[in-house]
Design a protein that fits this description.
The protein is mostly helical and 159 residues long. It has helices at 3-12, 37-64, 67-70, 76-110, 116-152, 155-158.
Length: 159
């Protein structure tokens, strides 16, 4: 074919987006969508709930692991007071994290758009709800049991 004939064919048939022969082989990135404020709120609530749950669970394991041996030391009443104060702070942290997780999950169910930020927020909300529920349950059940056994155990069993 001559060059003139190719030019005539090209002029008669313009290139369109639906023409498979002229589509690029690479994927053209889509234009980024603007993230609305509801998605940001869902992500913020979920992330805060997950972080509070994880940090409070880690702090709770350090606070609640040695009440028995330290209650019979010289500073037993001071240690017990500090431990009770820390447990109250942990209860407040877990309750706050649980509320934030529930609010984040409710907001994610109410929004109409679904994007990556909102999906991550919903996942963090579920993780926060689970972690804070476990933490609250452990504090409510385990802390009174450890205090009861540490106060009812005679000192000669500990040495």
């Amino acid at each position: 074919m001559s060059l003139d004939r190719l030019k005539k064919i090209k002029e008669k048939r313009p290139i369109s987006d639906t023409d498979q022969a002229y589509k690029p082989s690479y994927r053209v990135p889509k234009k980024l969508e603007k993230i609305d404020s509801d998605s940001r709120k869902v992500f913020g609530f979920g992330l805060a709930s997950g972080i509070i749950g994880a940090v409070a669970l880690i702090m709770g394991t350090f606070i609640m692991r040695t009440p028995i041996t330290s209650l019979y030391s010289y500073y037993s009443s001071l240690y017990l007071t500090i431990q009770i104060f820390c447990v109250i702070i942990l209860l407040a942290a877990h309750a706050t994290g649980l509320i934030l997780g529930i609010v984040g999950k409710i907001r994610s169910n109410k929004t109409t758009s679904s994007n990556t930020i909102e999906t991550l927020g919903s996942i963090f909300s579920i993780i926060g709800i689970i972690a804070n529920s476990i933490g609250l349950t452990l504090i409510i059940i385990v802390f009174p049991i450890t205090i009861y056994y540490s106060l009812s155990t005679p000192i000669y069993y500990l040495s």
